[in-house]
Structure formats: structure tokens, C-alpha cells
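Page 42, continued from yesterday. The earlier attempt failed because a stray header line got pasted into the input along with the sequence. Redoing it now with the clean sequence only.
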Amino acid sequence: MPGFTVEKYEHEPIVLVTYLEAWNNQTDVMAATSAVLALLAAAEEPVFYIVDMTIEPKFKLDDLLTITSQLTRTSNALLKHPNMLEHLLVTRNAVMKLAAKGLSNDAFGGIRGRTFDTLDEALAYARGTS
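This time it went through. C-alpha cells are written below.
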């Protein structure tokens, strides 16, 4: 069973990935990325990509750097997909917020993104800006 869920909100430009307690950095990163890329490719309009990390999965620094590189620097980099309006991260973890902010740096391609403490706040932002 995967450690995440992926859903495209019906009639809204929102794709949500929710990390579950069973999240595994080794197996779930690529599976979740593939699922989201498929949704983005099929999207009829650009969408907000929301990642709900409320459960605060454990990341080592090496994991974080590897994942960030995969999401921003590969040939099919998820966070640079043309159908992505903005990356919204839901977390209260200060390290994850700092990492998300770092994605806006030119070294990672200037990824547009924001962080929120709750999913409700992220959804309100996406719905108010779309």
C-alpha cells in the first residue's frame, strides 16, 4: 500500500498529494511523482499542486537534497511542469518550510511556491487565486 494519496479536485484547478503515515522516501517519491505527472499531462488547464505533509515524514538531509533535485532538475521535473500554476506545501515543520522557500532560488529553477500550516489555508489560497 502506498504511503500517499493523489487526487485531482473535480471542477477545480487543484491536485492534492497527501502523505500518509506509511510514507517511504525510497518507494513513494517516484510513485507519487509519476501519478502527479500523469494528472498534469491530462489537465486541461494549469493547476495548483498541493502537498499535504501534515504527518511530517522523516527526511534526512541527503533525502531532501535528492528529492529536491529529482523534482526540479530532471528532464521531466515535476515542479517545472507547464501545467503547474504553483506548488503549495502544507507543513508546520520549520526545516521543510525553509526547503520549500529555497526552491524559489535560481539554483532550483525559481519554483513558484508557498507554505501553509493547514490544508484549509492552502485550499483557500488556491481557490482565491484561481
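Notes: The longest helix spans residues 25-42.
Reminder to self: strip header lines before submitting.
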